[in-house]
Design brief:
The chain folds into two domains: about 5-210, Thiolase/Chalcone synthase (Peroxisomal Thiolase, Chain A, domain 1); about 215-380, 3-Layer(aba) Sandwich (Peroxisomal Thiolase, Chain A, domain 1). It is about 25% helix and about 20% strand. It has eleven helices and 15 strands. The chain has helices at about 25, 40-45, 65-75, 105-110, 130-140, 170-175, 250-255, 265-285, 305-315, 330-335, 340-350, and strands spanning about 5-10, 20, 50, 90-95, 120, 145-155, 195-200, 210-220, 230, 235, 240-245, 260-265, 295-300, 360-365, 370-380. A hairpin with a 5-residue loop joins strand 10 (about 235) and strand 11. The model is unreliable at about 170 (pLDDT under 50).
Length: about 375
């Protein structure tokens, strides 16, 4: 089997960057009032800017498929490779524009210059983009495809509009004592962002510029021991099961914000870091690696609230990674779900600070039902 290389990366972020002071101009007010939890949530997540594929009237400016198509096209700007020679498009998202057709075929429809090719859609939340990446990686590695594109994208802002929420978290005193409370619902409005990223994967590295060799990609799910934690289009019952939107009336869907994103905050706080980083320790030992082997650590952070939690856990378990090795652009682009890891790698790839031989560790957690994907890249 051949090696696999990321030979180009790209991103597309819609419209202008939106500051913290402008968020409610786009997402609207709840019950005609400014959010009382916004400042607390922003203080914890430390995000300063994000992007929305909508205008101040709440009208969409791009579909998810359009965002992804624009990122895909950018892979071939100033590139001698003909886009029509790609033979696989693998796209992941948690916010497709529709349930049917699949997201990837809609991206293909927006990018007809790709010609006839295989398309694959992966769903989920933050790991969806990594699952798409792994499918593309494996297809090239086994020789089934010569040139593949993988992508991650989100268009969540429309669902964050005030009309989709029936109530707001108001308990400021409780939020001060326990920041996890803000993660149930309202916090997502101040964290999530729209955008797309893409990779071009081939079996040979670039001849005249740097490439990223994909050494391995590993995923794991803990759904066998964890009930749902983050969900949309359903509601969580007292027994831990999800009740589908299909089992609610239209009136109940509206009154109970069934289509908004929610999280079980207690479950999130207790499990998201320990489960994922115990598994990382196991994986590195299996592969004869330690955290000292890496020059860059790219963790997908939903919020900077978890940065110190991860660092503390790593330190306590003998896996200290100095902060100077951490790389993230969360503060300036927001949490773009399945696209976040693409945006981080794209920023690093085009930063001109990479050197041949350096190793990059990727860790992408997903709280939906506690899934994680890990990968190691080598600069070559």
């Amino acid at each position: 089997m051949s090696d696999v290389f990321i030979n180009n990366t790209s991103h597309f972020l819609p419209n202008d960057s939106i500051s913290n002071d402008e968020i409610e101009e786009y997402l609207g007010l709840l019950n005609g009032q400014k959010s009382k939890s916004k400042s607390l949530v922003l203080r914890n997540n430390k995000i300063t800017n994000r992007y929305y594929a909508l205008d101040k009237f709440g009208l969409a400016t791009h579909s998810n498929a359009e965002l992804t198509s624009k990122a895909v096209r950018k892979l071939f700007e100033n590139n001698s490779i003909d886009i029509s020679t790609v033979d696989l498009l693998s796209s992941g998202t948690s916010t497709p524009d529709q349930m049917i057709p699949s997201h990837a075929v809609m991206v293909h429809g927006e990018t007809p210059e790709l010609q006839a090719l295989e398309v694959v859609s992966s769903s989920g939340v933050c790991c969806a983009g990594m699952h798409a990446f792994k499918y593309a990686f494996m297809s090239v590695k086994i020789g089934d495809k010569k040139r593949a594109i993988s992508s991650g994208s989100e268009r969540i802002s429309k669902l964050l509009r005030s009309e989709n929420y029936s109530e707001e978290i108001q308990k400021l005193a409780e939020l001060e004592k326990n920041p996890y409370l803000a993660f149930e619902k309202d916090f997502l409005r101040w964290m999530l962002s729209d955008g797309a990223g893409a990779f071009l994967l081939e079996s040979k590295p670039n001849a005249n510029s740097l490439s990223l060799r994909v050494d391995w990609i590993e995923g794991v799910s803990f759904a066998h021991i964890q009930e749902p934690c983050m969900y949309m289009g359903a509601d969580k019952l007292k027994n831990g099961y999800l009740k589908s939107y299909m089992d609610y009336s239209l009136e109940e869907i509206l009154n109970n914000s069934i289509l908004s994103v929610k999280q079980d905050v207690k479950q999130l706080g207790e499990n998201i870091v320990p489960l994922g980083f115990v598994k990382l320790d196991q994986l590195l030992k299996e592969k004869g690696l330690t955290v000292n082997d890496f020059d860059y650590f790219l963790p997908h952070l939903s919020s900077y609230f978890f940065e110190d939690k991860i660092a503390e856990f790593l330190d306590l378990n003998g896996m200290n990674i100095p902060k100077e090795k951490w790389f993230t652009n969360l503060a300036t682009v927001g949490n773009v779900g399945s696209a976040s890891i693409y945006l981080m790698i794209d920023a690093l790839f085009h930063s001109k600070q990479l050197k041949k031989g350096q190793k990059i560790l990727l860790v992408v957690p997903e709280s939906a039902r506690f899934s994680y994907v890990y990968s190691v890249l080598t600069v070559c």
